[in-house]
Amino acid sequence: MRTPEALETLVEYGIVEEVLRPLMSGKEAQIFLVRSAGELRVAKIYKDAEQRSFRQRSDYTEGRTTRNTRDRRAMAKHSRHGKAQDEAAWRSAEVNAIYRLSEAGVRVPVPYHFIDGVLVMELVRDHEGQPAPRLGDLVYAPAVAQQIFDILLAAVVRMLCAGVVHGDLSEFNVLMAADGPVVIDFPQAVDPASNLSARKLLIRDVDNLHTFLGRHFRGYRPLPYAQEMWELYQQNLLTPETRLRGRVSASQRPTNTSEVLALIGDAEREQRRRTGAAPQGGAQRGSPSGPRGSQGSQGQQGSRGPQGSRASQAPRASQAPRQQPDRGGPRGPKVEVVVKRGGSSQQDARRDEAARPAQEPRRDGAAAPARQEPRRDGAAAPARQEPRRDGAAAPARQDARAGVREAKAPVQDAQGTAAAQDPSADEGASRRRRRRRSRGSAASDAPGA
User: Fold this and answer.
1) Which whole-number Å values give the CA distances from 9 to 5, 37, 54, 274, in the listed order?
2) In which band, very low, low, confident or very high, does the pLDDT at 289 lie, cut at 50, 70 and 90?
3) Does the annotation count 326 as an active-site position?
4) Is 185 an annotated catalytic residue?
5) From 59, 86, 116, 168, the catalytic residue
6) Nearest 5°: phi and psi at 354?
7) What is the pTM of this model?
8) Which of 58, 93, 196, 384 has its CA 20 to 30 A from that of 37?
9) What are the start-end ranges of the E strands in 137-288?
């Protein structure tokens, strides 16, 4: 057989003498039957993160830390180095769990070598010396199935006492060896002291054992062994020799909802303080909501009359403003309130100047002052001075069009001086312009036009 790339290093070191055949393939690793130290063993090669089909991996990796602070920060940021360290921690979790459970008396495969992410361990054999089958591949009598269930339940108790929750225990992760069931597959094992999902995973593991027993034992009724086990563990009363009875005492403490609501209110106020948002009017407690509340309020206003409705609307002025239709009448015209949001004062000044209409010419004939435009640097631009009535020339505006304005300045000064000296001339010119417009309109309305 061709040697897999992951086993080439172990072959070069002489740890693996020969790769015989692939034995099994799972969702996170591949198992090969190899010859090592003159006997048959198995080599477990873990798949890459992209090839694994393990779902909800974050539930299992919670609470796993490293002593190196640099690696810890990199794993939290999910950088390239952090992902590599996270992958190494996932592969080494099984070796650590196997050594811990072996010392606690749980029947697990014996590990021999762990090099470059490859685990070389014991080959579990059946009565005939062949690789042991999985628990779910065989059929048992009800009494034998009950005996296997008791052995596995005691193993779960020992694992919890050793600080390990399997997380994926089922009939497919148990091998039936000649000396009894052997628990395998621990990469996803969690520590109940640091993982918040440990209780949920423990209950699921025991439920899978109940499913196995119920398939071979007709009329079996599962008992809450997992809940009892976890309650004893929290009270520090669980030991490896504890015999479970399947009895759980329900908590008699009343639920304090006021504290929960107070915490929710504190969190909302803290969020509003950080974001600067105003409290929403619809979130107040006790306010009628929905179609029933609106109908009830309308009925009360109808019974009180117009004065009662106006009085009931007065306290709502402090709430968030709502758009009301313009009814006119004695209430006067609609008043729109514009609330300015975040923005600089320069942007507000430019917006106000753009919305202001252009100034109309003055009635005395003098040129109206031009609108003052804001400069790009934020400072106010110098306003254009209107011509002085004494006839003196006003200084032209100094900007990019200064030359053009200086050329037009004498003509404007002359017109302004003539209008200031003889106001009747300006009135006569206005009458002549109106006459010419009236004649042109009459000519256009004629039949021959």
Assistant:
1) 8, 16, 27, 56
2) very low
3) no
4) yes
5) 168
6) -70, -35
7) 0.56
8) 93
9) 174-177, 180-183
